[in-house]
Design brief:
heterodimer, A: mainly alpha, MetI-like fold, 2 domains, two-stranded antiparallel sheet, 16 helices, 4 strands, B: alpha/beta, D-Maltodextrin-Binding Protein, domain 2, five-stranded mixed sheet, four-stranded mixed sheet, disordered N terminus
Chain lengths: 398, 499
């Protein structure tokens, strides 16, 4: 409809009337109608666009700006409403350098040799990527600058990470606990999801049944999963007590040990989200061109070679997307540590989002917003680095 | 035609929904003349506390057809902010609250709570004078005015298994050293005859739960020696926190050590869990409010009926010298209130669940809310409710302490009733009782700073000295932000409560 209206409008503007001819009146009339039509089209555009735009502004941009302002303020509920005091970067400073540094970043200690190796490896990979960009044909100043900043931030992040995890007496804060949840969790979810997807493509008995069973965990609410794992990991009561007793673990509690508790959280998360990897990878596997695989087999390749050199590269675009989606989602983990361990023991299993939630619950809305922005920065940085890293490989494979 | 009919139907549906919504709105607004006055009460997700409110609401409605009561529950850790944000933003979706009276320091000043002094005086059925003087003057009163109606009386006590201690020839603990010794002896013994090893001690240690009260209960006997007015949280001369000294260090060590004789996952257990363990016969000792006493007589869940004794909180033979921060022996000079050389400082932790009314709602709604809270607190209801474990209500009326028939009727033996009530009364009558903190930002001092540091210490994330420094610095930061003089004045006023 819109295109025919436009053509009519354009036609109406078309011929120039000859002065004194009878066409003048008709042309004037046509111009008037055309003007109306044009204005109506513009109005219609505004009428249709602005409500949606306003909704987006109200629901997305406005809260983003307000929360940014909150993150540099202190908000207090008072007799006659809310008092907001501007603090500058105090909330961020307390997280990065102040009283909350232990909680947010962790306890930093001198690096062990393993820590130094990890930092050196990451620094070398980042430098290599940077040099590789410099040697490329499309080098732009802005791109160069952004890559330099991202590279420095990434190496800095890994350096801090190593100082909490690979250092004598160090302790990770919520930032690095979240990173462990994200990277370890996603790696295991991907490997398990891929394994299950490959199994589901084999012509095994009960294939349909298992496809449904593998998907079930994803349909359960995370709070439900957390309560279920709380029950399952309880060595004193719960369905696995006889097994724990047999294994001599009556006096063991997952929640007493920081890593035991973190592993319990990760097992719950992996159990819930492996089906997501499974279903997407299964779809990709089933959509694969069988002729290439058959040709490779005919040429003498074995199953492992086919999987390594044909299937995996074909899955790369899907893998990239599915990991990116899970990564962004995994950074927001909150239900499992909140219900399963209540963030404990101490603060050992607290994720960034849970820390922000605890601050919000105790009405420290400014610091809660600052934490949310720190999370945004970290997610953006890592997601961008990841996309840049894998894009070339995907392009090269394609 | 079909479209027209459908539209007509939709119009009718919309009209019905609109009218229904309007009616609901009128009803919930509680405006006079709109039929029933609706009172929405906010409290914590029980089942305790919410249970008696919900159970008795229909009976109250029968007697007062024009008042409708509904009870909304949220987790305890959310209750403070839920009340604060609801009232301060003018939302006023709750007309009354059953909450922690410690928060009056934050809620009375801005006018969030209704002054109930006149209503209380005029209400004979409430039998105000029967309510224990401490609960009337501390849990209910702030700056000389009554703001809440007590529904519960709270003290920490130590519970022990009478049968187990008698079998092993042990006396109930008088000091925390006694407590640890008994816990150590009973750890791993089969206490309920199921062939499994059980626990010497069960005390909640979960974060965002009740740990910050328990640490104060242990520290109290070391810190407060000179009577209630001395205070156990801050120095009354300069508002400096009393948390970085040998006394608090000893308390942290004891609290952590009790974990060695407890369930393996005790660090993740709240009082609901430890109560369940004690009443199922799995613990020799526990520290708790009055709830275990009544839960122990519940035939549906308890395996320890008539096997439970209760004593005042254990004390200490070493006490804090506030000038040096060191522990010194307890003698006639240092411990004026000592009994047999032991300084006891029973902790009136929490103060007891109390009902308050939103100061911003209409008078008719306030009257209706008061009527319900008065009904809940009246002896006819409360004398029954305090004997039922699942209510979470503990005795707070004089008649409840003096009349053991109530308790015998509820299923307690005469001896158990005397023991249970005796422990509460010994705490209530102690001249060295510790009053819980009740100043502006109490929730921040205790529920945020103290709770987090204790949780990190118990988990081994930070050592004892770091924990004390963290609490000290955190409390100082709040005091400085609020104004030292203002906080000191509020603290001293809270300690001047008459009992």
């Amino acid at each position: 409809m819109a295109s025919s209206d436009n053509s009519e409008t354009l036609d109406a503007r078309g011929p120039t009337p000859v002065e004194g001819s009878g066409l003048e009146v008709a042309t004037g009339e046509r111009e008037r109608v055309a003007g109306h039509t044009f204005r109506a089209a513009v109005s219609a555009k505004n009428v249709f666009l602005w409500p949606a735009l306003l909704v987006v502004l109200a629901l997305s941009i406005f809260p983003l700006i307000v929360s940014l302002y909150l993150s540099v303020s202190r908000l207090e509920f008072q007799a006659n409403g809310i008092d907001v005091r501007f603090l500058g970067f105090d909330n961020y400073a307390s997280l990065l350098f102040g009283t909350e540094q232990d909680h947010f970043i962790g306890v930093l200690k001198p690096l062990t040799p393993v820590g130094w190796i990890i930092v050196a490896v990451v620094a070398a990979i980042t430098a290599r990527a940077f040099v590789s960009y410099l040697r490329g044909v499309n080098v732009r100043l802005l791109g160069l600058l952004l890559r330099a900043i991202a590279g420095l931030l990434l190496v800095g992040l890994v350096w801090l990470f190593a100082q909490t995890l690979f250092a004598q007496g160090g302790r990770p804060g919520t930032l690095f606990v979240t990173l462990v949840y994200v990277f370890v969790g996603i790696a295991v979810q991907y490997l398990l999801g891929l394994g299950l997807a490959v199994l589901a493509t084999q012509r095994l008995r009960g294939q349909r049944f298992f496809r449904v069973v593998f998907l079930l965990p994803m349909t359960i609410t995370p709070v439900g999963v957390a309560y279920m794992f709380r029950m399952l990991t309880d060595t004193g009561k719960g369905p696995f007590v006889p097994l724990f007793d047999l294994a001599g673990l009556q006096n063991f509690a997952w929640v007493n040990d920081p890593w035991g508790a973190r592993i319990a959280v990760m097992i719950g998360d992996i159990w819930q989200w492996t089906p997501f990897m499974f279903i997407v990878l299964l779809a990709a596997l089933e959509g694969q061109d069988q002729e290439i695989t058959e040709a490779a087999l005919v040429d003498g390749a074995n199953r492992r070679q086919v999987f390594r050199h044909i299937t995996l590269p074909a899955l790369l675009p899907v893998t990239t997307t599915v990991i990116l989606i899970r990564m962004i989602e995994a950074f927001k983990i909150i239900d499992l540590p909140n219900i399963l361990t209540n963030g404990g023991p101490g603060t050992a299993t607290e994720s960034l989002t849970l820390e922000a939630f605890f601050d919000w619950r105790t009405l420290n809305l400014g610091r809660s917003a600052a934490l949310a922005y720190m999370l945004l920065i970290v997610v953006t940085l890592i997601a961008t680095a990841y996309v840049n890293l894998v894009r070339r490989r995907v392009t090269a494979t394609a | 035609m079909r479209n027209g009919t459908r539209l007509g139907g939709l119009t009718w549906l919309a009209a019905v929904v609109t009218v229904a919504t309007a009616c609901t709105g009128l009803s919930s607004s509680g405006s006079p003349g709109s039929g029933a006055i609706s009172v929405n009460i906010l409290t914590f997700t029980g089942p305790q506390i919410a249970e008696p409110l919900q159970r008795r609401a229909p009976d109250f409605r029968t007697a007062n057809p024009n008042i409708s009561i509904s009870v909304t529950t949220v987790p305890f850790s959310d209750l403070y902010q839920k009340i604060l944000t609801d009232v301060s933003t003018g939302t006023n979706s709750y007309q009354a609250f059953v909450f922690d009276p410690q928060w009056m320091g934050d809620f009375v000043g801005p006018g969030y709570l209704e002054d109930l002094s006149t209503r209380v005086k005029a209400d004979a059925s409430l039998k105000w004078d029967d309510i224990g003087a401490f609960f009337r003057d501390f849990s209910a009163t702030y700056q000389g005015k009554v703001y809440t109606i007590p529904l519960d009386g709270d003290f920490h006590m130590v519970y022990y298994r009478t049968d187990i201690l008698a079998k092993d020839g042990l006396k109930p603990p008088e000091t925390w050293d006694d407590y640890l010794a008994i816990a150590q002896k009973e750890q791993g013994q089969d206490l309920n005859g199921d062939g499994q090893g059980d626990y010497g001690s069960c005390i909640s240690k979960k974060r965002n739960a009740q740990a910050y009260w328990f640490i104060t209960s242990i520290a109290g006997g070391f810190i407060q020696t000179d009577g209630t007015n001395q205070g156990a949280f801050f120095n009354t001369a300069d508002m400096k926190p009393l948390v970085q000294n040998e006394a608090f260090a000893a308390a942290l060590d004891i609290y952590k050590k009790t974990g060695q004789f407890g369930p393996p996952n005790e660090i993740n257990l709240d009082v609901g869990d430890t109560r369940g363990l004690f009443t199922s016969g799995r613990c020799a000792l526990s520290m708790d409010w009055g709830d275990i006493g009544t839960l122990a007589i519940d035939p549906t869940t308890s395996k320890v009926k008539d096997k439970v004794g209760a004593v005042i909180l254990p004390g200490s033979k070493m006490v804090l010298d506030r000038s040096t921060g060191k522990l010194v022996p307890c003698d006639a000079t240092t411990c004026k209130n000592a009994v047999n050389g032991i300084n006891h400082a029973p902790f009136a932790s929490f103060g007891g669940w109390s009902g308050a009314i939103n100061g911003k709602v209409s008078t008719a709604v306030k009257d209706a809310a008061f009527k319900f809270l008065s009904y809940m607190s009246a002896p006819e209801q409360s004398n029954v409710d305090v004997t039922i474990g699942k209510t979470g209500f503990n005795p707070y009326r004089t008649s409840q302490f003096s009349d053991t028939k109530l308790w015998v009727k509820a299923g307690m033996s005469e001896q158990a009733a005397k023991d249970y009530l005796g422990a509460i009364q010994a705490s209530l009558q102690s001249p060295n009782m510790i009053l819980d903190l009740r100043i502006p930002k109490t929730q921040q001092y205790q529920q945020v700073v103290l709770d987090k540091a204790v949780a990190q210490f118990l988990a081994g994330e930070i050592d004892r000295d770091t924990a004390m420094k963290q609490i000290y610095d955190g409390w100082e930061a709040i005091t400085n932000a609020e104004g030292r003089d203002k906080q000191l004045s509020a603290y001293k006023a809270s300690l001047g409560v008459q009992r």
